[in-house]
Amino acid sequence: MSQAALDALPVVAAALLAAAAVSFLLTPLTIRYAAQLGAIDVPNDERRVHARPIPRTGGIAVAAAFVLVGLGGLAVNAVFQFAQLRAVPAQHIVALFVGVSVGAFLGYLDDRLELRARWQFIFQFVLAGIAIWFGISIDRLPNPFGDEAILLSDFAAMAATTLWIVGMLNSVNFIDGLDGLLAGVALIAVSTLGIISLQDPNQSIVAVLCALLAGALLGFLPYNFHPARVFIGTAGVFAVGYALAVLSVLGTAKVALALLVLGVPIIDTFWIIVRRVSSGRSPFSADRGHFHHRLLDLGLSHRQAVLVIYGLCVILALAGLFLSGRGQISVFLIVVIVGGVLLYLLTRRAGEELDRQAYAEENVPEVLGAIRRAGEEIVGAQEDDAQTDASEEDKPAGHTEKAAVPDRR
User: Fold this and answer.
1) Pick from 389, 164, 144: nearest CA to 266
2) 46: how many CB neighbours lie within 10 A of its CB?
3) Least confident window among 148-162, 274-288, 369-383
4) Residue 138 neighbours by CB distance under 10 Å
5) What is the C-alpha end-to-end distance of the chain, expressed in Å?
6) Is the link from the previous residue into 227 a cis peptide, with omega within 30 of 0?
7) For the purposes of burial, counting CB atoms within 10 Å of the CB of 182, is it exposed (0-12), middle (13-18) or buried (19 or more)?
8) Alpha carbon distance 203, 247 (integer Å)
9) DSSP 240-281
10) pLDDT tens digits for 92-106?
11) Is residue 182 within 8 Å of residue 188, measured between CB atoms?
C-alpha cells in the first residue's frame, strides 16, 4: 500500500464510521415519521409479499447520511487540511452529490405518489443527464481482446454513460426483491470499488466517497435485514444506483470492476428482460423468474437466499481485486454465459404467481433486535412509536408496472 493510501486511510475510516452512525440514527426517525411522509408500503394486492404495512423511507436516511456527512467532511477538510486528498475534478464531486440528492427526491415522489412507469423512465434519464452535464463520461472501454482500451467518440461516450447509469438504476431496482438484498450487494460492490481506489495514490478522494456510501448502507442494513423494519424505497434505489454508477466512473474508470462485482444483479436483469420480452410481456411485468425467487423455490429460507447471493458477490469481488481490466471483463463475459444457462435451467418452470409462503417472516435474531432497539432508543423512536396506522382505504394502491421501483417480486 502506498504512502498516499496510508495517509488517506484515517479519513476513509472516519468517513465510513460517521456515515454509518448518521444513517443508523436517521433510519429509525424515518420509520417513525413514515406516515407523515406518506411513504408506507401497504400489502393491499397480491404482489405484496409482506403481511403488514412497512415504511419505504430507508432510502431517505441513506441518501441524507451520504450527502450530509460527505459535504460536512469535505468542508472541514478544506479548512483544517487533515489529509491531502488528491481530488478528481470538483464538478464531478458536485455531480455525485447533486445527483444523489435529486435521485432521492425523485424517488421519494414515487414512494409517496405512486407515479406511473413513464415517469420512472424520465427520472432515470434526468439523473443520467445530471451526470453528463457535470462532465461525467465513460470515454473508453476495456478491451477483452487486447491491452489497449477502446476509445469512444464524444457521442458514443455520452450514449455509453447514459446506458451505464440507466442500466445501473434498473439492475439495482430488480435486485431489491428480498429484505437486505439491495443494501448488502451494494455494500459489497462499493467496498470493492473503495479498496481498488485506495490502491491508486490519485484516487484517495474516490476511496473516501466510496466509504461514505458504504457507511450509509451499513448503518441502514440492521433495520432492513430480514425481517425488515423498513424498505429502502425508490428513493434508495435512485440514490444508491446513481452513486454506484458515478463512483465506478470517477477518476480512472472502474466500469469493468463494477460489472464483475455486480455480475449477479446485472446478469439477472439482462436475462429476465430477455425472457419477458421473448414471451411477449413487458420487461417490467411481475413474475417469479428472478434468481432470488429460484433460490427460495429450491428450499432456502429468506435469509439463506440473501446470504447465498452475498457470497456470490464476494467471490466476484475477490476475483475483481486480483484481475486487470481485461481479465475482469473476460470473467464477466464468462459469468454472463454460465449465469444465463443456469438461470434458464432454473426458470424453465418459473411460476408466474407469487407464493407468500416462500416469504414467510422469520424471527428477529437476538443480536439484530438488540442493535435495532439501541438505535431506536438513542433517537427516541421505539418500535411502538414507529408502528404505522396505514390502511387500504387511506393509502395508495400498490405499484403496478414500474421501471425503477423496488421490484419486490
Assistant:
1) 164
2) 11
3) 274-288
4) 21
5) 43
6) yes
7) buried
8) 11
9) HHHHHHHHTTSSS--HHHHHHHTHHHHHHHHHHHHHHHHTTS
10) 999 999 999 999 999
11) no
Is residue 320 one of the residues assigned to a domain?
no
* Whole-number Å distance between alpha carbons of 401 and 117: 6
What are the counts of helices (DSSP H) followed by strands (DSSP E) for the chain? Answer: 16, 4
Which grid cell sits at 376?
431506536
For residue 151, the SS3 value is strand
Amino acid at the residue 24: F
Domain presence at residue 276: no
Residue with cell 443456469: 342
Identify the domain containing residue 381 by its residue range.
3-254+363-386
Mean pLDDT of 218-226: 96
Q: What is the DSSP string of 32-72?
A: HTHHHHT-EE---STT---SS-EE--HHHHHHHHHHHHHHH
- Cα–Cα distance, 191 to 248 (Å, whole number): 11
Please check whether residue 48 lies inside any domain of the structure.
yes
* Amino acid sitting at position 43: P
* Residue 75 or 86, more confident: 75
Contact 296, 305 (CB under 8 A): yes
Count other Cβ atoms within 10 Å, centred on residue 113: 12
CA–CA distance, 258 with 79 (Å, rounded to integer): 33
Q: How many residues does the chain have?
A: 409
Q: Number of folded domains in the chain?
A: 1
Q: How many CA atoms lie within 13 A of 82 on its CB side?
A: 14
CB neighbours of 334 closer than 8 A, spacing ≥ 6?
A: none
Structural domain includes residue 128: yes
User: pTM to 2 decimals?
Assistant: 0.86
Q: What is the pLDDT of residues 238-247, one digit of tens each?
A: 999 999 999 9
What 3-state DSSP class applies to 230?
coil
Residue 54 pairs with which residues in a beta bridge? Answer: 41
Q: With b meaning 16 or more CB within 10 Å and e meaning fewer, what string describes 322-333?
A: ebebbbbbbbbe
DSSP letter for 365, please.
P
Q: Which of 95, 241, 96 is nearest to 169 (CA)?
A: 241
Retrieve residue 123's grid coordinates. 427520472
Among all chains, which residue has been given the C-alpha cell 425503477?
Answer: 404
Residues facing residue 150 across a β-bridge: 141
